[in-house]
Amino acid sequence: MAFDVPALQLIAYSSLTGASIIVASVSVFLAFRQNFGWRSIVMPTSYGGGGSNSEIEIEFEVWNRRKYPIMVLAQEVTFKTLTFVKENRALTDEELGTEWTRNGRTFQLSKKILLDPNSHHRFSLAAEYKTDKPERVWDEIASIKVYIFDPNKNRELLIGSGKVKWSTMRGIF
């Protein structure tokens, strides 16, 4: 059985060239991430409420995974279906000492915070709601949006957690 040596050499050289390109591409990607870090993220850490006091609580963290500091400009938490009482107690973020403002089902906190490289900050919100059906809170969906300023890109960016559902979070904690 005879093999065509030049054809086998062409196949070997082509496959080794392709493998080298893949290794070089992965190296460039990892080198970029090593120099600038990964994008910032929002992580919900707890989400709960219900019971006799009709209060919903949500805590989330903003993580700066960049190699340089960023500025957190504003936070926004929007609930899908709950109706909140008009006589809300002061909704303070304990660590910041500032109050959340409410507009319908949306709560906003506009305190600017400088996040150092590879650090995080926790935000918390507790609000009283009124409902005819207490079990409805199990299906409540909250959307978290955080606006940051990235000095390397010189622009404001929106990072968010997507939608958070209480019935899926309660098994985690």
Given the C-alpha coordinates, what overall shape results? elongated
Query: How much helical structure, as a percent, in the residues?
Result: 10-25%
Largest sheet: 6 strands, antiparallel
Task: From the alpha carbons, calculate the radius of gyration and give it in angstroms.
Answer: 24 Å
Helical run tally? 2
Task: List segments where confidence is low: pLDDT < 50 over at least 5 consecutive residues.
Answer: none
Q: How many individual β-strands?
A: 12
Multimeric status of the protein: single chain
Q: Quote the distance from N terminus to C terminus.
A: 66 Å
- H-E string: HEEEEEEEEEEEEH
Number of domains: 2
If you consult CATH, what is the topology of the largest domain? Answer: Immunoglobulin-like
